[in-house]
Amino acid sequence: xxxxxxxxxxxxxxxxxxxxxxxxxxxxxxxxxxxxxxxxxxxxxxxxxxxxxxxxxxxxxxxxxxxxxxxxxxxxxxxxxxxxxxxxxxxxxxxxxxxxxxxxxxxxxxxxxxxxxxxxxxxxxxxxxxxxxxxxxxxxxxxxxxxxxxxxxxxxxxxxxxxxxxxxxxxxxxxxxxxxxxxxxxxxxxxxxxxxxxxxxxxxxxxxxxxxxxxxxxxxxxxxxxxxxxxxxxxxxxxxxxxxxxxxxxxxxxxxxxxxxxxxxxxxxxxxxxxxxxxxxxxxxxxxxxxxxxxxxxxxxxxxxxxxxxxxxxxxxxxxxxxxxxxxxxxxxxxxxxxxxxxxxxxxxxxxxxxxxxxxxxxxxxxxxxxxxxxxxxxxxxxxxxxxxxxxxxxxxxxxxxxxxxxxxxxxxxxxxxxxxxxxxxxxxxxxxxxxxxxxxxxxxxxxxxxxxxxxxxxxxxxxxxxxxxxxxxxxxxxxxxxxxxxxxxxxxxxxxxxxxxxxxxxxxxxxxxxxxxxxxxxxxxxxxxxxxxxxxxxxxxxxxxxxxxxxxxxxxxxxx
Length: 561
Description:
Elements: H1 15-24, H2 33-45, H3 51-62, E1 66-68, H4 70-75, E2 86-90, H5 96-110, E3 115-119, H6 140-153, E4 164-169, H7 175-179, H8 196-202, E5 213-219, H9 221-230, H10 235-247, E6 251-254, E7 264-265, E8 272-273, E9 278-280, E10 282-286, H11 293-313, H12 319-328, E11 332-336, H13 338-344, H14 353-377, H15 392-398, E12 411-419, E13 422-429, H16 431-440, H17 450-453, H18 457-468, E14 478-481, H19 494-504, E15 510-515, E16 524-526, H20 529-535, E17 539-541
Parallel strand pairs: 2-3, 3-4, 4-5, 5-6, 10-11, 14-15
Antiparallel strand pairs: 1-10, 2-9, 6-15, 7-8, 12-13, 12-16, 13-17
Helix pairs in contact: 1-15, 2-3, 2-11, 3-11, 5-6, 10-19, 11-14
């Protein structure tokens, strides 16, 4: 089987990788990936590292061994340097002034191109008395909907749709309403015979409550201790599980013991903080392209230095973000290509002793370098160093498995918006799988995928829990599941899922699931390897009246699994 290679960007493994680069990141002065890598290394670290280190860093990025977050890639060589992917906001007081301030902060952050995450737990429940006016409180959910609407109207950095996250404490008065706030399936639409869910299936961009917002419930130490003492997860947790298994949301935010106050999360939930206006600063090591522990050591060292440099160079939307960044200097050095690494080393999707060793090197070097390099620059030390992001777009660039996720499928059909309202699709053989099949002669039918593991969700949960010990913030990972109502995912399986998730909860920081078909416009559909091979490289226009969420232009949705 031949492997696709670009003349302009020979390090890319697929045409789709190059398409992502050209549509999202290519611009004047950064016509090739190598150009962009060189520009970015100099933009961020040119005055803070030696010339040799800058060159080494440029080569690492060019070789796709380390890839900074998408905002770094987008703003490389541009006048504005809004390098940060997300901002973490907090409803601090239940006052009119805070409601207004939260809206202003949200809009300011979204306009830079960064996503936002907000914890609303401080807002009083709906119907409670407002002593100042004698009226009654609206509760947090209407405010979430207001922020969702701001996100709908504000194009992030003028280049992509908004990414928003909202959370609420499990003991909040409005938690039951929150649990079902995104259950659109049974909500009728006036003047039609359709529900919101059915219209969303036909057109992903059709507006629904909180449709631009990912939601999660915050569980604190009180919940964990209650579970340990009684063995009962409680009605809120049980209802949370049922909603997640049927609709995909809400997710679960676990904030226990010394992390109890870190309820603020970014849009993809991997960065956590206790401080309003904190910021995430992301980059990912591509384990699939690293050949030895010594090379991992070197890449981790320079990647850590790069992100520290980013805390000195990134432009921010308002003054408080600068103050909090100076205080925390939070890094988010993550991993991708982990499943590719496992396949190349003839391992199943589990954390084997060799992977434990590699992850301990990643942890140890990032901790050591962050302290030493910060001291050398006479700046505050980072309060946290590692978070594993989902790496949707940059995982496609690298042609590897995203984050800690298993390969979605060896072969699949990917649908996307290319221009205007024209939706297209391509048949794809996973780039990492293709390389492994070609180089190592691996049988495609033997490669485990997320679709395969949908029937063995405990292995996915355990994998995430095992990796968490090497991460001082959180991991963004979404467990694929069979569709709701199937033999393995229905009302009868809820209780067992509760038990499994609760058993691992103390080793997790966050958790989400995606039941097959639970959201309109599903971007990826598994196909056979032979079907994809026969149609590889061809592009097809969508012929049915439906829309999708994968948008290569960044203007109609998100691009990820």
